[in-house]
């Protein structure tokens, strides 16, 4: 009986840890790939990008989603300098900064892939300003996102939130970007780019389910 309890406990912890790692993105590149591709996480390479493509392919897990489309208002003031990189959102509004977007003020677009929420804190005239960008994966950048990063972190197959170096993620030239980072969340459900990542809730529910199954087995 004691051996069975120990076995169940070990299995539950192992699977819960796997779920937790998967939600937060456990497939981290090596330190060399981090420097090359703009990844900000631990230097632990699990497998190559080519292997990730073989396992997960390049298609989203659902056919479409409805995503909020907006940028913080201060982006509009510098839009001439940004318009060659970003596609114009449905509107510029400070409602885009809210933790939960108000649909009365932020339009929604039909998206054939996944929803994106990005935010950064650039310093302007000595003052740190937080800016948000929300939209559909296909409608945010003229040249798209770095596909190596999209594939490595399985954007098309799971919800995730993490930091990336903007120069690498947006494939910008060195003379038009610095080494700053941007936070990016990806998700699939309608209007999911309104709030933050739900990975913590997913982990908690998965862990509770595993514990319940273990107790029942005993």
Automatic annotation (TrEMBL):
PANTHER family: HOMOLOG OF ODR-2 (TWO), HOMOLOG OF ODR-2 (TWO)-RELATED. Pfam families: Ly-6_related. Keywords: Signal. Residues 1-18 form the signal peptide. This is Protein quiver. It comes from Steinernema hermaphroditum. GO terms for cellular component: axon; neuronal cell body. GO terms for biological process: olfactory behavior; response to odorant. InterPro entries: Ly-6-related. It comes from the Eukaryota.
